Amino acid sequence: MSDWPDSIHAGETEQHEPLVRRVLAPNPSPYTFTGTQTWLVGAGNEIAVIDPGPAGSGLSIGDPKDMNGEGHVEAILRAVGNAKITAILCTHTHRDHSPAAAPLKALTGAPIIGCAPLSIADDGPRADSAFDPDYAPDRILRDGERISGEGWTIEAVATPGHTSNHLCYALIESGALFTGDHVMKWSTSVVSPPDGDMSAYMASLQKLYDREDRVYYPAHGPAVDNPRQLVRGMIGHRRMRERQILGLLEQGAQVIPDMVTEMYKGLDERLKGAAGRSVLAHLVDLEKQGRVALDGEAWQLAA
């Protein structure tokens, strides 16, 4: 995290390349890092907004109580200025990504385009990432579908795993890929069953590795300027976690909290619940492969 400047503040606009700007939402947490990054695409009169972020109740950017995105819609509108928002896109519908789409649409008339709606119970530990039940897109993009505006073209890249409805967005003109929560430089993505699926997540990582994107702009943390190298490392990391799990089960039946303690030594206590969800995702995947089995609350190698 040392390469992320201390000077970045919520509500400020930062230019990353001619067609790409970023506005940081004021919702930092152990799961969102410095906050949700809303990406603005376009340099002319037509702007696409990617991941408008959390919704709020009217506090201003900079207010010390503003920890859930209040004022962020106003910051987006300030950054857009006199240009017209022609598309509001969401990578997925966790509560730190999509709720601001509705108020932004109400203020601008721009359509909500992108991932499919998804509303399920989130039994994981991430209170900031419960699903947004009110998300209502005007158009759902399928894998490979495109939208365009003045000087830009965006293509949907389906990447299920973190959530079943997760999309990345490729900016055709520059080779950039907006990766949402699927690939981030500062942290691995939480894969939390029942909607999170480790098998799908690994397939989506391989899908990105097979592409030739120049740079990744995630929803949290710094840009990734070595995409394929990072993704290769992430695939290796997940395979290492799988080997760790199987190694522990070779010693006997295990419950997930004890596995987390062994596998994530020194982990912040606030993140142990999320780590447990990812361990569960690996176990569910291994169970589908017939390699492990659940006996009560303990997991063991399949007979």
Characterise this structure:
The structure is a single chain. The chain is of the alpha/beta class. It folds into 2 domains: 13-225, 4-Layer Sandwich (Metallo-beta-lactamase, Chain A); 245-301, Winged helix-like DNA-binding domain superfamily/Winged helix DNA-binding domain (Arc Repressor Mutant, subunit A, Orthogonal Bundle), CATH 1.10.10.10. 26% of the residues lie in helices and 21% in strands. The chain has 6 helices and 14 strands. Strands 1-2-3-4-5-6-7 form a 7-stranded mixed β-sheet, covered by helices on one side. It has a 5-stranded mixed β-sheet with strand order 8-9-10-11-12, with no helix packed on it. Strands 13-14 form a two-stranded antiparallel ribbon.
Q: Topology of this structure?
A:
Elements (H helix, E strand, L loop, with lengths): L12 E5 L2 E5 L12 E5 L4 E5 L21 H9 L3 E7 L10 H8 L3 E3 L24 E2 L5 E4 L2 E7 L8 E5 L4 E5 L17 H12 L5 E4 L8 H24 L5 H8 L8 H17 L3 E4 L2 E4 L2
Parallel strand pairs: 4-5, 5-6, 6-7, 11-12
Antiparallel strand pairs: 1-2, 2-3, 3-4, 8-9, 9-10, 10-11, 13-14
